[in-house]
Design goal:
The structure is a homotetramer.
Chain A lengths: L3 E2 L4 E5 L6 E7 L3 E4 L2 H9 L19 E4 L1 E2 L2 E3 L3 E6 L21 H8 L16 H17 L3 E9 L2 E2 L9 H9 L7 H16 L6 E8 L13 H9 L5 E6 L10 H4 L3 E4 L2 E4 L7 E2 L2 E2 L4 E7 L8 E6 L4 E6 L8 H21 L9
Antiparallel strand pairs in A: 1-2, 2-3, 3-8, 4-7, 5-8, 6-7, 9-10, 9-11, 11-17, 12-17, 13-14, 15-16, 18-19
Helix pairs in contact in A: 1-3, 3-8, 6-8
């Protein structure tokens, strides 16, 4: 198991949903950077459950406590460790799940991987709750990026069959902030209302829905990243697939590019404000693994929450026989909603890691 | 730059399109494994250019020479190095490109990354030709996997608007072999004919087309991979985005999952031949980063070849002014065709790397 | 900064001497392993200060609290996090040190590395106190190794000019235990008394002394490790130099081998109990980076504690002028004493990491 | 197996002594740097065998051929691959060694590690010949460092019981050059004559001798490296133990520090030329893993060549019975002699890797 990622800035996540605490170690942060804890907490609140009918009703305080690496609000250069204590735990809801793996849930694969020794109440280390430490790391990275003029934002591009409008060619930090303030993080509030209705309809039928999250980063210089296996796509994809429920990652036109001709897909170069830019951005700001200087645009496909209230077909592992399962407990009808800041967070700390790359050309 | 990937089996690629040779080092191969060089060469031939009107007319011999690590056809345990000499080089075709970056090509980003010092004739290290060493590594990995009952295959799922049928629930090694033998690697030959027509039409108009490649691996045990950042998806995506022109990677239902409800997306568990399986496979054989024992299914979106014969808008870097560009030279109208074995290769060596993982539970 | 090491088992240390807590994350531990917390605490007590006149009089409870990864005393497979709260902190002792770097202490290099932003009271992250988390990780690794018949032990081989006898050709777990139980971890108690006297003499003169620690591991199979850069020596040395005050690492005859002829240094092979062994062990159980099956023997040179009570010559960084310094506070007159279990700990988790290596030959 | 090292600059070595070629891939070199091939070849000549009676009489041309990454003598930014063809191979000398492992040679451990499949003629991948690719990498790194005012040099500090004088407090590039030009790389030629006599005496008795190599790097800034596991010592030691026959590595006073008191060992800070320096350098230029700005000083203990002409006791692996062995073939009576440039090379590419570190504080 490796719940760790990063080369220059290493993010190491720990915790189980029903253990004492969850948390994160960030190794490689610059020293002497002021971190606004209120801003961090505000960012983290965006993934908190219980804030609307569209998410699970569990209450989590999720206020990080800094054990190390932050002195008087300033990074110390040494590894930062922040934890969140687990308080609201009702493990009874998960009793009996050990023998009946939930369809499309990690119960079964965790059992195959770790054996019966592993406590999977509330999904253990696979729990969506582990996205809170990701948000601590990403929230801190966002602040450091922001101090350098790099901004990361995301919105819910679609839920089931309802779609928000895509990011404009040049998204602004102001747009990111406006989206983040909405109860549903969308650009077009009318689209948001339709999405909310779709989520509510699924919940009413004890079902769930998937969605797509679109994430952008602006302010990145051209020339960031490396070819082949060390490109921005490689690193971002490796990180984004670490967010539970992500089943696809694409950049720029992504899968739509496969249906295009080159004459349509190619982004013409233009001069804009004395800089080389492109007149459109089907590349998503990335060519050959390296940033073009245009906004970086990524999209993540989020599968529907596997935990649904409906009766489902499964097997009894002890009896190796068919069985029926009815999942109780509180579950988000659409994990994509709360995953929006998580995708932002993972994008932010990955970009910061890449920005901290030792540029071999810079050693002169 | 890091043209290297892998944890237990490290793949390190070197070469420029117009240098002396291109090649690969594989560090971590098991010792004492017989490699069938003819089979390897046959595999590599699948990506060779010049075999049909659908690909570029360059002739490359691409027969690997083993400098180290293979003694009398058997792996020596020490790092393997194989090279392919560059012979058919017409760098004149690329003259003058230095100043006029080709739209959606790595010319511009390479310049921003490495400065003017870098020789980008034929795209240098970014060239599609560097996929030949990937095929050496993958072809060797495929043989080792095959000896252990794991088979990897891929087909061209779509080209522009024409689609092949998807892999069946349980693809077989025989199906993989049949697909590989066809001039266009498809399951449904009628679909293949339509795809060929679409490619030919694009070529006739000095244009290019994109496509989607579907790749599957069968014979993998359940329980392979690790949660969060060390899952099979994370590692495969990081590797697959190393193949030029890949703009999206998805597993199982992928982006389609985002439009589904949980009740439809969840794969019911069933008992089959005494094993826990699922009755469908929208998970693509992966839940929580770990294999389920069902076939692993990945899909890659390939953008259209950026080098097209049509006149395109670009800029002169020396003059920082708009310019027009007409690309000469020989180019595949659809990179997705020859990328099919490359995707297989990258999937194969990544899976072998994961299979070689030290299983912490195995130390008892 | 990277306070992290390991490939299969990753050890990530965090904390400053004067922060809220110090701790460690272990990522990659096997699941389902019972950890005896009392035995762990007993192991950790060996490095605790304040137990004799030979070490600093600070009192630290150093009882680890497990935040994650250990459920009911059994490893969960997911990352383990254990912390120790900082309680006895007298930062006043360190006031004014910021401007006057202590000779041979990390004050100056930390300032050059991190700038003035870093709080170096009590040496911050460079503090010897950070060896407590190393002992948590090593103590857990020792238990897992012991369950598999691998035992690690160390003793104080020398202090200043006084020497203990070296480990015998085949040290036993019983010898390791006997040494660990002594107030000074030595084999020959008479030698121990002389060492204690040397330490006491130095302390009485407001001075400090260095020492050598010899560490051995028994029960390792032959054939462990890899050639060139992934050998057991490479990995152990990289880890051991992470222990503060280590200035040299050698294996087997080490530096003495440089003064020998081959006819004397070479270890003749013999058959012993049906196994290939050597009749002596100047190789220290390692040839070409790989274990021979003989006991692994490493030695670490520990410099004298840089913090001494005597007046020393330094410079004022603010004035760039010569200055005198008199260090107050409580300091071990010989860091080598308390470092014995730390060296054991680091050796233990490094060996466990190597034992968990995916053996490429094992994939068949 | 991992014959690879480095984080920003990755060095990957391949080859067996009796294969087609040996070589190295350097991934991460800056682009646009002119490499003087004659200077490189001159550097490599220092480790060439057959230049004096003090080394083996094998003749190797060892002229590297650049397959990739170097265009018209300038680095291309993409991975550099250089190879040396194996020409003078007399594998008959090694016949029969498979069953009778040579004492203190990697024959036995390689067999335990890789099984009988591995061809160990001439020690295969463990051969000292593999130090030639290390010298290619290090020779290139030396040139890049030299362009930046950083110089690395080494000398033979001792052979058996004969010693050269140690490096002065501030070694100069001129001293490095003078030492390198001597037939035996020493500072004091009279000492060199005594060493030569000791080597010759051992050879005359069909024996071998060990030695110590002292290596220094000047021109490094203060503040390079990171604490705990990412310090300069950790990285250098991990690399230096990759050189065959190294059994110990120490920095500054090293093992001698263990016999000192703090009042003697501590290096007083002084102001020198407006910089903070120390009046002596028992720290070897490194405190807490970080450079002080004083010269970096490392020492490596080299064991005597294990291949000696005398009759030795070993075992027959096939019969598991005692046996006698007489090694034929041409062997260096003192590997330390030719290892001097190798230690320089490994030190050089490791320092370059560290210099290329992304400095987190530099992202502001």
């Amino acid at each position: 198991m490796s719940s760790e990622i990063g080369k220059n800035l290493k993010i190491s996540v720990f915790g189980q949903s029903h253990g004492r605490a969850i948390g994160v170690v960030m190794d490689g942060l610059p020293a002497g950077i002021a971190i606004d804890e209120e801003e961090l907490y505000k960012f983290m609140s965006r993934r908190k459950p219980g804030t609307s009918r569209l998410s699970t009703q569990r209450r989590e305080e999720d206020r990080p406590v800094f054990l190390a690496g932050l002195m008087d609000g300033v990074t110390a250069g040494s590894p930062l460790c922040a934890v969140i204590e687990n308080t609201d735990v009702r493990s009874g809801d998960y009793a009996g799940l050990a023998d009946l793996p939930r369809p499309s849930h990690a119960d079964f694969t965790a059992r195959m991987r770790y054996g019966e020794a592993v406590d999977m109440r509330g999904s253990g280390h696979f729990s969506g709750r582990l996205t809170a430490p990701l948000c601590i790391a990403g929230g801190i990275a966002r602040q450091i990026l922001g101090q350098r003029g790099v901004y990361v934002g995301a919105h819910l591009l679609s839920v089931e069959n309802e779609s928000d409008e895509p990011f404009p060619l040049f998204p602004t930090p102001e747009l990111f902030a406006a989206v983040a303030d909405r109860s549903l993080p969308v650009i077009d509030e009318a689209a948001g209302a339709r999405m909310a209705a779709a989520i509510e309809a699924a919940r009413a039928e004890a079902d769930s829905v998937g969605g797509v999250i679109e994430c952008a980063a602006v302010g990145l210089p051209a020339g960031l990243g490396s070819p082949m296996f060390d490109g921005v796509e490689n690193r971002l994809a490796a990180a984004l697939f670490g967010v539970p429920a992500v089943k696809g990652v694409e950049f720029g036109a992504g899968f739509a590019a496969a249906g295009m001709r080159g004459s349509r897909h190619n982004d013409p170069f233009v001069i804009r404000d004395g800089q080389v830019r492109t007149s459109k951005n089907d590349a998503g700001g990335l060519i050959g693994g390296i940033t073009t200087g245009m906004p970086l645009v990524a999209r993540c496909a989020m599968k529907p929450t596997p935990s649904i209230g409906r009766k489902q077909q499964t097997v009894s592992l002890s009896q190796m026989a068919p069985a029926e399962l009815e999942i109780k407990g509180r579950h988000d009808p659409c994990v994509a909603v709360r995953a929006v800041p998580v995708i932002e967070a993972v994008t932010a700390f990955t970009i910061l890691d890449i920005l901290m790359e030792g540029n071999e050309n810079g050693i002169t």
